[in-house]
Amino acid sequence: MGPVSSNLDPEVADRLRRNEAGLVPAVVQEHGTGQVLMLAWMDDEALHRTLTTGRATYWSRSRQEYWVKGETSGHVQHVRSVAVDCDGDTLLVTVEQTGAACHTGNHTCFYTDLKVGQ
Amino acid sequence: MGPVSSNLDPEVADRLRRNEAGLVPAVVQEHGTGQVLMLAWMDDEALHRTLTTGRATYWSRSRQEYWVKGETSGHVQHVRSVAVDCDGDTLLVTVEQTGAACHTGNHTCFYTDLKVGQ
């Protein structure tokens, strides 16, 4: 279970298959461009807050606290939709991204390509 | 570390921050449509095979074995590009998807929307 008890809709909670820390990965995709911006983690309460406030909210594994994306940077994420995958262990969050999603200042966290091929 | 020792390029291996099972999540996105298809897991050797063969290869946590996507279903993924994120703990794999990515027959695993809003 997550770090705090949650008000998440029980029907949604029943769908989730969490890891041993009570978390599921959330893939964050930009509405319109389709760019994959980042991956973060949610527990039940982070998902509840995301669904009810429309502001993307994650669980910070390093700081062990809830984290409303953009709260300090201003680089907020307005949530357009949230989907759960076929086996309930991953979320896909579609957002309108203000500014850069990445703490490095890059728009996406995935700016380093690896070499494919022999 | 991953389940087997790997021939992964040491420079790439140095970038990776693996979980306690030696794995990193791989977000799989369809080239062209931009659709996010699925999330799977890679250890160093799965990434090495993906990069060198151009065929998306994952580590199956349930079966505890390597899994060349589409090997049994025919729904193969030809890899266009692989990116690692800013802190090295997530991969983004861009693929040309043959058939459905999801074992349910859906094109994407993310076909169940949750309700956003009050």
From TrEMBL, chains A, B:
<protein>
    <recommendedName>
        <fullName>Phosphoribosyl-AMP cyclohydrolase</fullName>
        <ecNumber>3.5.4.19</ecNumber>
    </recommendedName>
</protein>
<dbReference type="InterPro" id="IPR038019">
    <property type="entry name" value="PRib_AMP_CycHydrolase_sf"/>
</dbReference>
<dbReference type="GO" id="GO:0004636">
    <property type="term" value="F:phosphoribosyl-ATP diphosphatase activity"/>
</dbReference>
<keyword id="KW-0368">Histidine biosynthesis</keyword>
<dbReference type="InterPro" id="IPR026660">
    <property type="entry name" value="PRA-CH"/>
</dbReference>
<keyword id="KW-0862">Zinc</keyword>
<feature type="binding site">
    <location>
        <position position="89"/>
    </location>
    <ligand>
        <name>Mg(2+)</name>
    </ligand>
</feature>
<dbReference type="GO" id="GO:0004635">
    <property type="term" value="F:phosphoribosyl-AMP cyclohydrolase activity"/>
</dbReference>
<keyword id="KW-0028">Amino-acid biosynthesis</keyword>
<feature type="binding site">
    <location>
        <position position="87"/>
    </location>
    <ligand>
        <name>Mg(2+)</name>
    </ligand>
</feature>
<dbReference type="Pfam" id="PF01502">
    <property type="entry name" value="PRA-CH"/>
</dbReference>
<keyword id="KW-0460">Magnesium</keyword>
<feature type="domain" description="Phosphoribosyl-AMP cyclohydrolase">
    <location>
        <begin position="38"/>
        <end position="111"/>
    </location>
</feature>
<keyword id="KW-0479">Metal-binding</keyword>
<comment type="pathway">
    <text>Amino-acid biosynthesis; L-histidine biosynthesis; L-histidine from 5-phospho-alpha-D-ribose 1-diphosphate: step 2/9.</text>
</comment>
<dbReference type="GO" id="GO:0000287">
    <property type="term" value="F:magnesium ion binding"/>
</dbReference>
<comment type="subunit">
    <text>Homodimer.</text>
</comment>
<comment type="pathway">
    <text>Amino-acid biosynthesis; L-histidine biosynthesis; L-histidine from 5-phospho-alpha-D-ribose 1-diphosphate: step 3/9.</text>
</comment>
<dbReference type="GO" id="GO:0008270">
    <property type="term" value="F:zinc ion binding"/>
</dbReference>
<keyword id="KW-0378">Hydrolase</keyword>
<feature type="binding site">
    <location>
        <position position="86"/>
    </location>
    <ligand>
        <name>Zn(2+)</name>
    </ligand>
</feature>
<comment type="similarity">
    <text>In the C-terminal section; belongs to the PRA-PH family.</text>
</comment>
<dbReference type="GO" id="GO:0000105">
    <property type="term" value="P:L-histidine biosynthetic process"/>
</dbReference>
<dbReference type="InterPro" id="IPR002496">
    <property type="entry name" value="PRib_AMP_CycHydrolase_dom"/>
</dbReference>
<feature type="binding site">
    <location>
        <position position="109"/>
    </location>
    <ligand>
        <name>Zn(2+)</name>
    </ligand>
</feature>
<keyword id="KW-0963">Cytoplasm</keyword>
<feature type="binding site">
    <location>
        <position position="85"/>
    </location>
    <ligand>
        <name>Mg(2+)</name>
    </ligand>
</feature>
<feature type="binding site">
    <location>
        <position position="102"/>
    </location>
    <ligand>
        <name>Zn(2+)</name>
    </ligand>
</feature>
<comment type="similarity">
    <text>Belongs to the PRA-CH family.</text>
</comment>
<comment type="function">
    <text>Catalyzes the hydrolysis of the adenine ring of phosphoribosyl-AMP.</text>
</comment>
<dbReference type="GO" id="GO:0005737">
    <property type="term" value="C:cytoplasm"/>
</dbReference>
